[in-house]
């Protein structure tokens, strides 16, 4: 697994790796059982599944929070990403709104629970098929807009975690568009 640099919204990113200590990291997952979600549940232990069963599920784009249990993070924010379909081009706008909501509602929960750091996987880009370029634009735009808002000002660090080198390359290419280096931002 490749981890991109931590992206504090007030400080433009640099490409050398930076990491948060494990106790600072808030992990994000989906609520469907495979991929990142399955790995997080396996690492967190059975208590996570027990708590998830009390949440009454979630709609696509909705997020909910639980304890982190055996994970190094104190909490897990669960979000339901949209399933992307190339055979239904009419749904592209709806899927984009749902994906935006995944990131926004996760950030809102983090702030509501006085969390300072959040780590995002690349929501819906695995088995759910969301194109990585489009999903990355949505993730970065949503995070940037939220962090510039009054509500987002309490977040200190946002971390994007990717699985493949291809995904890492997409983030490295797009991050400067949303978080330009200081010399370009001034």
Automatic annotation (TrEMBL):
Transmembrane segments: none annotated. Gene3D superfamilies: Leucine Aminopeptidase, subunit E, domain 1. Residues 1-179 form the Macro domain. It holds the Pfam family Macro. SUPFAM superfamilies: Macro domain-like. This is A1pp-domain-containing protein.
